[in-house]
Amino acid sequence: MKILLLALCLPFAICACKQQTDTAFTESDKIITNPGQGFASCRQKPRTDGILPYGVGYGRYDWSDFEPEDGKYDWSKIDELIKNYAKIGLPVSFRITCANYHSKKHYSTPKWALDKGIKYKPYNWEKERQNPKNSFTTMTRYTPYFDDPLLIELHTRFVKELAKRYDGNPHISSIDLGGYGNWGEWHTYRLGVPEATPQTRRKFADAYLDNFKKTPIVFMSDDAQTLEYALEKGGKFPRVGIRRDGVGGPWHYRNWIGSKKYSRIPKMGEIWKSQPVLLEFISSPNKQKEWSMQRAVDFILGNHCNVFNDNLHFKNTFTSAQDAPLIEKLKKYIGARIVIDRARILSDSQSVEISLKGRNVGCAKIYLPYELVYELRTPDGKTAANFLSKENPSDWLPGEISISDKFELPRNLPKGKYELVARLAHKGKVLRDFAFAVSEANPDGSITIAKISI
């Protein structure tokens, strides 16, 4: 970090001389883990192996996990997820399903709900996929018919209770709009029940859209009709973020933004500018014939992904020596990556003027509520004063960043030497700071933009 001090005495000025400090920074080459972006750890507890830069803890659950009896709720799984990741200053995200082809239980929709009269159907894995020695592959599971009015009534009641407890929780980065279809992915593939009508699917969407007013909602993109409805509900596009669990599959590349399937959503490619984009591999690209890891990485970054699911059963994808350079690129540039190149500070005993120039070199932006805060720190590291920038870090799309602020200093500020530090702090004060991607960053991710005397 190069610092240049200049004293500027303005002609005919009555006040004391201005002190100018110019500081240059260098972009870091390190992979930086920041809250709400990078990779989602699909485990109840954070991983500690360091393979990926995890910025989110992610859980997939069944409705039956939370309402074991009619109208009686047990939220312990989500509360535990929040608690585990809060210890390391990271947020969580989750999805709740009514049918799960891979569930370890017979019932994803609670048995008591089916017993009340919801029409349902037993289903099993395809015979060629069953292992007679493994009950997980041979067990019978039960799925509701999604057009059943009683299912919609009871599940909507459940989502209302879910929202009462968690909407606006600062520990939650987003919630998947689940409920409908296999895995909550808005299709009934492998379940043996027909697709619900468009009117019914909108009711499942409304359960979340009408009750979650603060926490961001992310919608699976497989159902283009309901996606269009969800994006436009309330009259302000886009109401939801989007998620695609199919990176790597040729079919998914052909059916994406700009394709016939999504022709009724002309602004689909603009969603990322205000709502998050979450992606996941459909399989391990380096194990599929004629699948390209290069194409997968280009797709992930080109679609402004801010969170990518690790999918632990594809662990070899992220540890392959053959693809290491591409995976390193993915780790580094998913989400926002904020670089400050230079700072100019003008200060005297009364005020401080700040000018910062930098770049967001990542593929997306900061979606969580962060704010730019300046601190005057004493030589022993204590904060003597702090100031809130008028800039909103969520406005920093990929590209150039220009920041300009001016503050009056407290009149009772003791004379002495201070470090002027810039940090990106979470508004809810429960997540750790968003670290700058510069080599000179402090251990807490902040940067010292000037050393000044007052």
What do you see in this structure?
With 454 residues, the protein is an alpha/beta fold. It contains 10 helices and 20 strands. It has helices at 76-86, 111-115, 135-138, 149-166, 198-209, 224-232, 250-254, 293-302, 315-319, 324-333; strands at residues 2-8, 18-24, 38-41, 54-62, 92-99, 120-123, 141-144, 172-176, 179-182, 217-220, 241-247, 277-281, 307-309, 338-347, 351-360, 370-377, 383-388, 399-408, 417-426, 447-453. The strands form 4 sheets. Strands 3-4-5-8-10-11-12-13 form an 8-stranded parallel β-barrel, surrounded by 4 helices. It has a 5-stranded antiparallel β-sheet with strand order 1-2-14-15-18, with no helix packed on it. The protein is elongated. The relative contact order is 0.14. Residues 5-15 have low confidence and may be disordered.
In short:
The protein has 454 residues and is an alpha/beta fold. It has helices at residues 76-86, 111-115, 135-138, 149-166, 198-209, 224-232, 250-254, 293-302, 315-319, 324-333; strands at 2-8, 18-24, 38-41, 54-62, 92-99, 120-123, 141-144, 172-176, 179-182, 217-220, 241-247, 277-281, 307-309, 338-347, 351-360, 370-377, 383-388, 399-408, 417-426, 447-453. An eight-stranded parallel beta barrel has the order 3-4-5-8-10-11-12-13, surrounded by four helices.
